[in-house]
Specification:
By secondary structure, the protein is α/β, with parallel strands linked by helices. It folds into two domains: 5-98, Translation factors (Elongation Factor Tu (Ef-tu), domain 3, Beta Barrel), CATH 2.40.30.10; 110-237, 3-Layer(aba) Sandwich (Rossmann fold). The chain is 22% helix and 34% strand. It has six helices and twelve strands. The strands form two sheets. It has a six-stranded antiparallel beta sheet with strand order 4-3-6-1-2-5, with no helix packed on it. Strands 10-9-8-7-11-12 form a six-stranded parallel beta sheet, sandwiched between helices. Helix 2 (121-133) links the parallel strand 7 (110-116) and strand 8 (138-145). The chain starts with a strand and ends with a strand. The protein binds flavin-adenine dinucleotide. The site of flavin-adenine dinucleotide has 20 residues, from strand 4 and strand 5.
Length: 240
């Protein structure tokens, strides 16, 4: 039997055109014990029919935060269409935490994070904990988004470049809008050559990859072609 605890929405932030940040607080005021990188199952229960629907979401907040934060792509699917109408105070249910996609500071002193879209969420949790605990972890992040205005928590990531042992690069994969074409940074999908350009020592790092299946498969293949041992690659796959 799965234990589900009631949580209420405490904040909704429109982060990018397609991504909202949701914060949920446990109704009894408790906090959840988890390692950065883990996910929970979030359930919506229809008050009229009692029908329940649940989806997995990676936790973007830190273990010590009073709330659980999620960065959610508003794709208007079965679950996310409920969130289209969500408001502060709405009741949801949470089970977990789940998953083996974990960052532990003592074991992972040099890391490479590779994120596709909202796949940056678990890395926010990891970076937030690294900052809070003042770990000197050497972190590189390669982050792929479709458009420049889809970078989640850009200001926060920029700030970590001066406060942490952290460097990141964003690659924009689409060339559709004027803003895409004006983008001065990296363009196109992440491949072995792009990884090598920004990370000279991938074989010395624990590599964490998060995004859809096609993305994680391509990145794993690229890392292996660069000599990274499979056991040093951790992937969190979000569906097809
Ligand atoms: C471990 C884990 C962690 C996850 N963490 C997050 C997270 O932090 N943030 C987050 O946004 N999602 C996350 N997901 C995905 C999430 O669980 C749901 O699958 C997602 O929110 C879509 O659910 P839905 O019911 O709205 O769509 P569904 O009704 O289930 O799907 C609708 C359709 O949209 C397609 N689709 C799915 N994703 C996308 C997309 N991104 N863009 C366009 N089409 C898509 C599906 O293939 C499907 O055909 C995670 C998944 C896993 C397994």
């Amino acid at each position: 039997m799965i234990t589900k605890k009631p949580y209420v929405i405490s904040e909704i932030i429109k982060e990018t055109p397609d991504v909202n940040i949701f914060r949920y607080t446990a109704q009894d005021g408790s906090t959840l014990s988890f390692d950065p990188g883990m996910f929970i199952m979030l359930y919506y229960k229809n008050p009229q029919t009692g029908e329940e629907i649940g989806r997995a979401f990676s936790i973007a907040s830190r273990p010590d935060d009073k709330y659980l934060e999620f960065a959610i792509s508003m794709i208007h699917g079965r679950f996310t269409s409920k969130l289209d109408y969500a408001k502060v105070g709405d009741l949801y249910y949470v089970s977990g935490p789940h998953g083996q996609f974990k960052y532990t500071a003592t074991e992972n002193k040099k890391v490479l994070f590779v994120a596709g879209g909202t796949g940056v969420a678990p890395f926010l949790s990891m970076l937030r904990m690294i900052e809070e605990k003042k770990y000197d972890t050497d972190v590189k992040l390669i982050y792929s988004t479709r458009h420049p205005d889809e970078i989640i928590r850009k200001g926060e990531l920029d700030g970590y470049q001066s406060t942490l042992n952290f460097k990141y690069v964003v690659t924009v994969t689409r060339q559709e809008t004027d803003a895409d074409r004006a983008w001065q940074g990296e363009k196109g999908h992440i491949d072995a050559a792009m990884i090598q350009k920004y990370v000279s020592d991938p074989t010395e790092r624990t590599c964490y990859v998060c995004g859809p299946l096609k993305f994680t498969k391509a990145i794993e293949a690229a890392l292996i072609s660069l000599g990274v041992d499979k056991k040093n690659i951790k992937a969190d796959v979000w569906g097809e």
